[in-house]
Specification:
Layout: E1 8-12, H1 16-25, E2 36-42, H2 49-60, E3 64-70, E4 72-75, E5 78-81, E6 85-91, E7 98-101, E8 123-128, H3 136-144, E9 151-156, E10 165-167, E11 169-171, E12 175-180, E13 186-191, E14 194-196, E15 201-207, E16 210-214, E17 217-218, H4 219-227, H5 229-233, H6 235-238, E18 242-247, E19 256-265, E20 270-273, E21 282-288, H7 290-308, E22 313-321, H8 326-329, H9 334-342, E23 348-353, E24 356-359, E25 361-363, E26 367-373
Parallel strand pairs: 2-3, 8-9, 22-23
Antiparallel strand pairs: 1-6, 2-6, 3-10, 4-5, 4-23, 7-12, 8-12, 9-24, 10-11, 13-26, 14-21, 15-16, 15-21, 16-17, 16-20, 18-19, 18-21, 19-20, 22-26, 24-25
Helix pairs in contact: 7-9
Amino acid sequence: MKKKPFPYGHARSPDWREALQAALASCPWQTFPSTLGFLYVSDHFEKALEAIVSALREQTGVEDWAGSIGAGICATGQEYLDEPALALMFTDIPQENYRIFSGMDPYTPDASWPFPDGSLPYLAIVHGDSQTGGDPAVQVAELASRTGSGFLLGGITSSRHQGAQIARQVVHGGLSGVAFSAGVPLVARLSQGCSPIGPVHRVQEAQGNIVATLDRRPALEILYEEVGDVLARDIRKAAGFIFAALPVRGDDRGDYLVRNLAGVDMEHGLVAIGDYIQPGQELMFCKRDGAGARQDLDRMLADILSLKEDREIRGGLYFSCLGRGASLFGPHSAELRQIAGALDSAPLVGFFANGEISRDRIYGYTGVLALFLD
């Protein structure tokens, strides 16, 4: 028997009560056997988040909710950037196939983490908090190692306030989310928002976040050659356009971690990037480009659709970088409309993150898409 798509809704309003009622009114949740829901709420409503979660649980009877505050909210074909809005989705994933967790800072194993058959969760949807201490990158890597697949999907909470998360209730700090057993059919892929402008180089000399030599030449000399003297000398002009990229070792899809250029030392030929780097690592330079981002998003969508084979999409979660959206893809929800077009307007919710989580790493300028299948 064919399973129904997940009911979902989204709405904007200065009043959270009106937004919640409009979102609920737009989807047939009353006739759906809901167990677990996802909720993403604009940071305009952060002070009311506890009231929103309480009202949602009371009105729907669904106790288990997971999600995040975001400076921007995603839904099927629609993005809400810097405006009061919320998006929600109901699922009927069996309760024995998921675990809601919070406060993973660092990960502390307990009796509730394994499933009844003794198996570890296969993967997890994760929301992270970068404002309450701890290193999110370390937390993500540690939690990923506690799953059967080594795979996490999600994003770092983006907010101009405290950056709350939702894990049954409003929580702060560390990682929270939902861990799934291998019995939950889910596929995922990542799309880059930057494209390489030169070859991969080998780091010879580096300390901290300072790169001295690439391919046995001054790092700044390489940067000059690939991006031009003017941009390389003036990091302010290059900011938001030129980046460093660190290829992910052992990744068969050629993924890379994008990091900001933090500064240059013209006298000594040094380049500073927004991450620690060690001799022996690989590094390349890349540019942030709308046409390249759209092309890579099409590539990712074709890839993920090939994974679903003949199964139907019941719903999806999308975690996009704050540096994407209108500033990279153009106005009128262009990024979300591109996704909706490829997925035949399948149910989708999510948020614009301050760092995107895929596998065991935190990326930047990327879009992470997860699809639940029938």
